[in-house]
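Friendly challenge for the regulars: who can give me the structure tokens for this chain first? No prize, just bragging rights.
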Amino acid sequence: MKLKWKENAVSPVIATILMVAITVVLAAVLYVMVIGMTGDNSTMSLAPAGSWQDMSPNSNNSATITFGNFQPEASPMHIKLLIQDENGHFFNLTWFSAVDTENYTLACSNANITAFYFDFNPDGNLIGGGDHITIYGLEPFTYYYVRVFHYPSDSIVEMAGKKSFQTVP
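First reply, four minutes later:
Bragging rights claimed.
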């Protein structure tokens, strides 16, 4: 008995339809996976934007930086200050403790720099115009550059206005 192999296949039209269907299904599955990873926009936290009203030295080792506006509003506890001196040293001022409802303490773990946050409107517990941070423990006659990091959005806040100050000798 002899076996015969038949070389029959699907028609070219059916093969084309099958390839298109498989491509569409794969594209749909990939789309659903990507949408599932990013989540919907209502739950994502966007970085706020703000401005500095003023940055000025108080003495040879302290300065005060004053917020202008900050939108959308955020709690002072949702930020930290990133300060860099003219020599390239970075200081991360994070929350050390809450002193009371009007003042919060920020401290740098690798330096003797301390800052006190004053909330101009303590009932709101939000960053707003007039709120200011006084920083102590700075080096005399040194330029400092200030940035704000926002924890919920995991990003640097775009701040308009003056971004640096110099302590007095």
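The chain has one helix and ten strands. The longest strand covers residues 62-71. Your move, everyone else.
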